[in-house]
Design goal:
It contains 7 helices and 7 strands; from the N terminus they run H-H-H-E-E-H-E-E-H-E-H-H-E-E. By secondary structure, it is of the alpha/beta class. The chain has one domain: Rossmann fold, CATH 3.40.50.150. Strand 6 and strand 7 form a beta hairpin. The protein is globular.
């Protein structure tokens, strides 16, 4: 379902003060463990987190890397800035859309995102921007929920998707692996332990 970036931004702005609480149960049960596995693969000196949100990944930031993080929602970024101050983290935060990154070509060793591309209006455009700002040999790390390979479940997800987009601005039926494969990455690996609907993806430029 195609929804404008402004509408999605407004929905995340609206949810920002309660976002951590809304996802608290799933975060503790599933997501935190997966985030830890994703961040364990980070390499290099300069790392970009796309879709920092409220700063849920701050606990996993590598000690020695120079960290930059972006989000397109001003209210979500405000939450991240407050959390940054409380945790006394050294991370540069920018208000920015992944579909139009204001960084030079070949800037980052690793770009990382968790549960972000469900909300990007033009995901392939955002992925191509990430490819552009990655250094040669740099890696993209993604943790994303995707359309089920089960036909009945996929049909249900497609049916429910318009409602989910209206409520929270997130598509539940994205085919993110195919979107990554449509970009000119040298190699793409989907973690074989990934579940049917939650994928850990590594792509190398």
């Amino acid at each position: 379902m195609s929804v404008s970036g402004d509408k999605i931004r407004h929905r995340y702005d609206r949810l920002a003060p309660w976002f951590d609480s809304l996802e608290g149960f799933l975060e503790g049960l599933i997501f935190r463990r997966l985030r830890k596995r994703l961040w364990a693969q980070v390499q290099g000196e300069h790392v970009l987190e796309v879709g920092v949100g409220t700063g849920k990944n701050f606990a996993f930031y590598p000690d020695r890397a120079r960290m930059t993080a972006i989000d397109f929602s001003p209210k979500m970024l405000e939450q991240a800035k407050r959390k940054r101050e409380r945790k006394q983290l050294d991370v540069h935060l920018d208000l920015m859309d992944v579909q139009s990154l204001a960084y030079a070509d070949n800037s980052f060793d690793t770009v990382i995102a968790s549960f972000v591309f469900c909300s990007v209006p033009q995901p392939r455009k955002g992925l191509k921007e990430i490819y552009r700002v990655l250094k040669p040999g740099g890696q993209l790390l993604l943790l994303e929920h995707v359309l089920s390979s089960n036909k009945m479940m996929a049909k249900l997800m497609n049916l429910l998707n318009p409602l989910m987009v209206r409520l929270v601005g997130a598509n539940i039926n994205r085919q993110t692996v195919k979107n990554v494969q449509a970009c000119p990455f040298k190699s793409i690996l989907v973690d074989p332990t990934s579940s049917d609907m939650i994928k850990l993806i590594r792509a190398v430029k």
